[in-house]
Amino acid sequence: MGFDECGSPFDHLQADLTGGYYDAGYNGKFGLPMAFTATMLAWGVVEFWQELSWAGERSHAEEAIRWATDYRLKAVAGPTELWVQVGDGDSDHNCWERREDMDTSRKASKVDKDHPASEVAAETAAALAAASEVFKHSDRQYSEKLNEKAIWVTCFLIASVCT
Fold first, then answer.
1. Least confident of 20-29, 64-73, 100-109
2. How many CB atoms within 10 Å of residue 55?
3. Are 105 and 87 in contact (CB under 8 A)?
């Protein structure tokens, strides 16, 4: 049984979907905007690493990126599965309460070879690859893990679009 960070069980899946960023101030997590945010943060760090270092903010930027990419890594369930959403966009838009008090649906959605979604898969691959560049000097092992998963998602994306 998997869980989200609110302690709500996902009886139908074996996944740890804790972490990551919620979207728009409510209780849904959507893979595409989260991956896009991680991609943009990562490229900002790559482009302005020296300025961020001088300002003493590089570690904070890396922390923000890692929070998103740790979650996206967990969302890559295997070479042919990617978890893309937690929660229900309709009911979550009406739920403005603490996550610990939620009683709305905590369903999770994934894409796979039978249910492809090229946009979220492509952006997830981009986020992982860009973040790999951020960490290649400060955490080589993490950088390699991000790169490996980016390749997995890219191969999955190509296979699902080209078949």
1. 100-109
2. 11
3. yes
Q: pLDDT value at position 1?
A: 38
């390749």: which residue's tokens? 151
Nearest partner of 81 among 5, 2, 149, 130, judged by Cα: 149
Give the DSSP per-residue string, 57-96: -HHHHHHHHHHHHHHHHHHEEETTEEEEEES-HHHHHT--
For the stretch 114-147, pLDDT in tens is 888 889 999 999 999 999 999 999 999 999 999 9
Q: In this predicted structure, what is the pLDDT of residue 78? A: 82
Query: Model pTM?
Result: 0.87
Residues 6+ apart with CB under 8 A from 38: 65, 68, 69, 72, 127, 130, 131
